[in-house]
Specification:
The complex is a heterodimer of chains A (360) and B (110). Helices cover 46% and strands 14% of the residues of chain A. Chain A has helices at residues 57-62, 69-83, 90-119, 122-143, 163-189, 191-197, 205-210, 216-219, 250-274, 324-336, 344-350, 355-359, and strands spanning 4-9, 21-27, 30-37, 152-153, 156-157, 290-299, 302-311, 318-322. In chain A, helix 2 (69-83) runs antiparallel to helix 3 (90-119), helix 3 runs antiparallel to helix 11 and helix 5 (163-189) runs antiparallel to helix 9. The longest helix of chain A is centred in the N-terminal third of the chain and has 30 residues, at 90-119. The chains are: A alpha+beta (360), B alpha/beta (110).
């Protein structure tokens, strides 16, 4: 019988931009069990509902994470808007959709860069992050921010985007799409990359669903679930189909994310073409929220839930944010079982972990 | 999204979770909210785009069964409820016994 040993993985590791700890139980080089633990960067942001009113909480929600900050502000605002029965102007919905897709582009490109870095493909890593800069430039031009945008508010958005800027976005996206075609080739075709990803970290559709997985991690296992199809923001007016794969391995997760970037370009183009002309970008918010709502949105890493319970005062009772990485951790632990120790960093990376989101 | 909440007694939550599992639902989230003299626990289950939400009202020191025997991924939500709110949850399949979150003070959301 092989000797069992326990190896600590993290919280500091070259592939981890944020801290998570795993106790890896090994038999020789095979992982037989992985026990996760978190809590290194827990900030208690949800507890701030005691001190910040429901409008100020938009800023707190945005600060949950530096990558999907826009989505957190959006999900929280939409939850309050449902409770207060606020109908957001159509132009604001379309701009929210454009920014959401720009977030998806920059998040997926960031992840692709990290993956390339984990392989040791330094030039590819820098190419991915250079392309990501274009998305951040568009954020800066339209919102004034590159990480925290503060453009979301209960009842709409804070800044309009001119038609000239939208036309410029359209040109920039065309250029980004051409660049991405070049960058995507090594990820999808290079033999060394395929050797590291193909058949590694397989998760079946049944397992992924039972373990509560979300986003590209779920869809790469063949589960057709993308919350954008529920039609929040302007997604109901956009023609798109969820990207899924049935292979369920690390390669499929990479493939899904690359295709989702191309899809995001298309969604932004559709939004620009269908953008309502002029008009309001927000509506006045009257009264205080009273009631509860669970908002679902599709963040770049997967479905995020925003539960808000309000009591008719300016301070809400509860904000609970269930982020995609939080629900992907059990699935990640499952994929680690039976893998080689050398594959652990890549497997941890393929769920696209965001620990700031997870711990809030 | 369906915003109907079904109230469930604490002793029935595990049975209800098993029923939903056999009906094809997956666990979306569990969370606790502080109420006077206790907690309100919210369980959210999904099947495709359908959602069912169960609420359990719990007294301050009352115990509730883990649903991790039905949904293995529940351990992550239940350890969080225990560590941040101090909810007493028994029989979690992977129980960190208060060590899942490294918080400076014990049960900061209590």
């Amino acid at each position: 019988m092989s000797t069992r040993s326990v190896i600590p993985f993290g919280p500091q590791h070259p592939v981890l931009p944020e801290p998570i700890h795993l106790d890896l139980v090994l038999e020789d080089e095979k992982v037989v069990e992985a026990i996760p633990s978190i809590g290194f960067i827990h900030r208690g942001l949800e507890k701030l509902v005691d001190k910040k009113d429901f409008n100020e909480m938009v800023y707190v929600a945005e600060r949950i994470c530096g990558i999907c900050s826009l989505g957190h502000g959006l999900g929280y605002s939409e939850a309050i808007e449902h409770i207060m029965d606020i109908d957001v102007p159509a132009r604001a919905k379309f701009l929210r959709t454009i920014w959401s897709e720009l977030s998806r582009i920059h998040s997926h490109l960031l992840w692709l860069g990290l993956l390339a870095d984990a392989f040791g493909f330094e030039s590819l890593y820098m190419d991915c992050w250079r392309l990501r800069e274009d998305a951040l430039d568009m954020f800066e031009a339209s919102t004034g921010g590159r990480v925290i945008f503060s453009v979301m508010k209960v009842g709409g958005i804070r800044r309009d985007v001119s038609d000239e800027m939208l036309a410029d976005f359209s040109k920039r996206i065309d250029k980004m799409e051409e660049d991405l075609k070049t960058i995507a080739k090594p990820f999808l075709n290079d033999k060394a990359v395929q050797t590291r990803l193909r058949g590694v970290g397989y998760l079946s559709a049944e397992q992924a669903d039972l373990l509560g997985c979300a986003g590209p991690f779920l869809r790469a296992s063949g589960v057709n679930r993308d919350i954008r199809t529920t039609g929040y923001c302007a997604y109901g007016d956009i023609d798109f189909e969820p990207i899924i794969s049935t292979e369920g391995d690390s390669y499929a997760r990479t493939d899904c994310r690359i295709k989702e970037i191309f899809q995001a370009f298309d969604i932004i183009r559709q939004c620009i073409a269908k953008m309502p002309k002029g008009g309001e970008i927000d509506v006045p918010v009257k009264g205080m929220p009273n009631g509860e709502y669970m908002m679902r949105i599709e963040q770049p890493r997967g479905e995020a839930l925003y539960y808000v319970k309000a009591n008719g005062t300016k301070f809400i009772d509860r904000l609970r944010v269930r982020t995609p990485t939080f629900s992907n951790l059990p699935g990640m632990v499952e994929t680690l079982k039976g893998c080689d120790l050398a594959d652990v960093p890549i497997l941890v990376l393929t769920i696209d972990p965001c620990i700031s989101c997870t711990e809030r | 999204m369906n915003m109907d909440f079904t109230n469930v007694a604490p002793e029935s939550i595990l049975d209800e979770a098993h029923k939903l599992k056999f009906a094809g639902f997956h666990l979306m989230q569990q969370c606790a909210t502080r109420i006077p003299d206790g907690y309100e626990l919210l369980y959210t289950f999904g099947k495709d785009y359908e959602v069912k939400q169960l609420k359990v009202t719990l007294a301050e020191d009352q115990e509730v069964s883990s649903i991790s025997s039905a949904f293995p991924c529940a351990f992550i939500h239940e350890n969080e409820m225990h560590d941040l709110f101090g909810v007493n949850i028994k029989m979690i399949n992977l129980d960190f016994e208060g060590k899942f979150y490294r918080t400076a003070i014990e049960t900061p959301f209590k």
